[in-house]
Recover the amino acids of this structure.
């Protein structure tokens, strides 16, 4: 896994745990972790995570656009790795190396 | 998170992806998306309409109603007026001053009509999914529905049944709905809400789109809505249930975008799916 992805995954892990609060699990979050089945995240938790992503990365990472292609059923099947890759690609497209933010 | 009307509301704002479509004149309204009562949150709108609206050039605001999602859950204050007060205060806090397109799912639509009855000049259009303006007949149905849920959830085995049928997350959400109904006065307070005067509702002059699921009983209210607000466009989606927004977001989007162009003079470029 590229260094950029590594640091995004670390960021994302922190945000996911903040969103889950009392429901946070002890399990290690990897690229293959699923939001619904592994983390038990509800759709509103995913919205809350989207808000944190917007605050962290700005509009460069258009999470709403990313999930608009999903519906409420499939958003739960989303894997952490898919989101990490989306963020990495968005940041690269912006011309700023992800690791430097 | 935004402090409004004395409580903290969970709010998400999405900005338009680009400039308003060429040829559109006048100020661009802000879309405000209001979810339904008891087991709903802003997620129902977030994953269905929010993105298409920003693509169509509208700044979009979503929030969790008091008691719901990640907003505060005060013990009391669950009458229609409280929800309308929250919306009015939230718009002030967010400095949203221009025209509004109000979207409401189920009771969220009722809040939209309640706001429009108080601030008719602010509202450029209302989309109500499986909903009705605040009329005595609709509130009677809301009471029945709330009381049924409030009676069912605390029963032994109810959550296990939901979990077995619809999974662990559905059970967790049902447990939260049960806590909300047990910890707040909503079940008693909401159906007993003071309603806007009939002439204040009838004075709502903006375009209205009411969408119903063909298999849902809420559609029985459509003639009364058109009697009250003759400008209302009613669309019934055959074979759909009360959850039509979540089950058929593609159809809902199509009807909304057509209505925006035809009735509101807000032409929208067809959303490009990439």
């Amino acid at each position: 896994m590229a260094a950029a992805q590594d640091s995004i995954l670390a960021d994302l892990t922190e945000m996911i745990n903040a969103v889950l609060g009392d429901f946070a699990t002890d399990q290690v979050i990897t690229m293959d972790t699923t939001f619904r089945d592994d983390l038990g995240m509800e759709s509103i938790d995913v919205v809350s995570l989207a808000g944190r992503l917007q605050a962290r990365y700005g509009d460069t990472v258009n999470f709403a656009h990313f999930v608009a292609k999903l519906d409420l059923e499939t958003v739960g099947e989303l894997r952490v790795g898919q989101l990490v890759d989306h963020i990495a690609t968005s940041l690269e497209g912006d011309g700023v190396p992800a690791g430097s933010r | 998170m935004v402090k409004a009307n004395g409580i903290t509301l969970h709010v998400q704002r999405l900005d338009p992806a680009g400039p308003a479509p060429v040829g559109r004149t006048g100020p661009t309204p802000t879309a405000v998306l209001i979810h339904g009562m008891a087991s709903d949150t802003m997620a129902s709108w977030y994953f269905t309409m929010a993105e298409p609206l920003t693509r169509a050039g509208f700044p979009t605001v979503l929030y969790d109603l008091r008691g719901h999602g990640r907003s505060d859950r005060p013990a009391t204050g669950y009458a229609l007026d409280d929800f309308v007060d929250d919306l009015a205060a939230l718009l002030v806090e967010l400095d949203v001053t221009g025209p509004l397109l109000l979207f409401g799912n189920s009771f969220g639509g009722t809040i939209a009509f309640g706001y429009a009855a108080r601030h008719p000049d602010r509202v450029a259009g209302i989309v109500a999914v499986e909903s009705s303006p605040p009329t005595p007949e609709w509130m009677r149905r809301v009471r029945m529905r709330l009381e049924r849920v409030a009676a069912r959830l605390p029963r032994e085995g109810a959550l296990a049944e939901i979990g077995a049928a619809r999974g662990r997350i559905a059970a967790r959400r049902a447990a939260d709905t049960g806590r909300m109904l047990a910890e707040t006065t909503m079940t008693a307070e909401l159906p007993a809400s003071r309603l806007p005067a009939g002439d204040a509702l009838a004075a709502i002059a903006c375009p209205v789109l009411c969408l119903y699921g063909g298999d849902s009983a809420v559609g029985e209210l459509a003639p009364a809505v058109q009697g009250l607000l003759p400008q209302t466009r009613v669309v019934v989606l055959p074979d759909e249930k009360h959850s039509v927004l979540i089950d058929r977001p593609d159809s809902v989007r199509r009807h909304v975008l057509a209505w925006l162009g035809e009735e509101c003079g807000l032409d929208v470029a067809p959303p490009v799916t990439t």
Summary: The domain at 2-135+195-263 of chain B is CATH 3.40.50.1820 (Rossmann fold). The two ends of chain B are 31 Å apart (CA to CA).
